[in-house]
Amino acid sequence: MLGGEVYEAIRSRRVTRSMSMQPVDPAQLEQVVRSARYAPNAGNRRLQPVLAIDDARHLRLLRMIAPGMIARPTAAAVVCIDFGRAEQFGFRRETAGLFIDVGTTAATMLLAAHALGLAACPVTSFSRVAADRLLGLDPDVSAQMIICLGHAGDPEAEPPLIGGWVRAGSRSDSASPRDQSAGADH
Ligand SMILES: Cc1cc2nc3c(=O)[nH]c(=O)nc-3n(C[C@H](O)[C@H](O)[C@H](O)COP(=O)(O)O)c2cc1C
Question: Is the distance from CB of 172 to CB of 183 less than 8 angstroms?
């Protein structure tokens, strides 16, 4: 048997939402995506294609339509459902197994990423319609979960302050609440 190593990998895996700008080695990204092939899958039908992304533009656009994407990943694996093929098997779009297999696929890739020393975070809080369009997916294929991938950053690092303070009935580009209250009309 494998001893305690697999259990230890399961135990120590944690989501990481603070990622550095260090790119993910393309070979590692491929390994993570390939690991999806080993996920348990209902009837072994494999109706969950996985898309690998490592270009900055698509990652930036994805982040704009994903409120749940706190991390700034340098790569991502997007787990989709091929509803067209699912219908050919006689499944309705809401069939639970289709979504359960998204979970098994994601869990397997998260563990693979951890085994390779990569930081990862699953995200389901995003606009599916927008993601499908910006990823150029076929009409019957839809993104279900984004696995952010990267290298762990410094969780203590201060994130840049973007924008200003907004108070009821007013708006300012100032970064200081004091400046803002001076200009406020209340
Ligand atoms: C289906 C699912 C959806 C999730 N969606 C998000 C998300 O949108 N944003 C996020 O930051 N984390 C998301 N997570 C990560 C969970 O918050 C995280 O797994 C949980 O807090 C436990 O932390 P751990 O995985 O480090 O043990 C999601 C996890 C799952 C399983």
Answer: yes
Cβ(176) to ligand 1 under 6 A?
no
What's the 68 CA to ligand 1 centre distance in angstroms? 9
Q: Is the CB of 123 under 6 A from ligand 1?
A: yes
Please give the CATH superfamily to which domain 5-155 belongs.
Answer: NADH Oxidase (3.40.109.10)
pLDDT digits (tens, 9 = 90+) for 27-38: 999 999 999 999
φ, ψ of residue 143 to 5 degrees: the values are -70, 135
Q: Pick the residue with more confidence: 166 or 138? A: 138
Q: Which residue has 């609440």 as its token pair?
A: 177
CATH 3.40.109.10-classified regions of the chain: 5-155
> For atom 4 of ligand 1, which residue has the closest CA?
123
From the CB of 146, is ligand 1 less than 6 Å away? no
Whole-model pTM: value is: 0.86
